Amino acid sequence: MAEARGRDNWAHTSAILALIANVNRDPKKTRPCKPADFDPYAARDKRREAIEVTSMGTLKEAFKRRACGRGLGTGGQEPEVRGRAD
Q1: Do residues 65 and 39 share a domain?
Q2: For residue 14, which of 35, 37, 49, 64 is within the disulfide window of CB 3.0 to 4.6 Å?
Q3: Alpha-carbon distance 65 to 73, whole Å?
Q4: 21 and 31: one domain?
């Protein structure tokens, strides 16, 4: 019974957190948040997180896709290097 109450409280809290995050986000840079993103009891899809690596190129592409989908990283572009030009 105590766990059910905790789950219910987290469902309520995570809905409020998702609302606050979505109000303050930049729609051009990040995806909308879902309450499940903040709920520690929400079931995660393990198949989406599992990456089978057959080569290093496959691993790099998987990380680029995940980073670009969340608005992180350089978007698959090489970062600009400043300094001396030889």
Answers
A1: no
A2: 35
A3: 10
A4: yes
Residue 11 identity (one-letter amino acid) = A
- Indicate if 1 and 37 belong to the same structural domain: yes
Taking the C-alpha atoms of residue 35 and residue 56, their distance in angstroms, rounded to an integer, is: 34
Mean pLDDT (the chain) is 77
Kindly give, in sequence order, each residue whose CB lies less than 8 Å from that of residue 30, ignoring residues fewer than 6 positions away: 70, 71
pTM listed for this prediction: 0.50
Q: Are residues 55 and 38 in the same domain?
A: no
Residue 76 contacts by C-beta under 8 Å, 6 or more apart in sequence? Answer: 64, 68
Residue type, 59: L
12-39 confidence digits (pLDDT tens): 999 999 999 999 999 899 999 999 999 9
Answer whether 20's CB lies under 8 Å from 14's CB.
Answer: no
Distance between CA atoms of residues 86 and 82, nearest Å: 12
Q: Residue 57's Cα: distance from chain center in Å?
A: 22
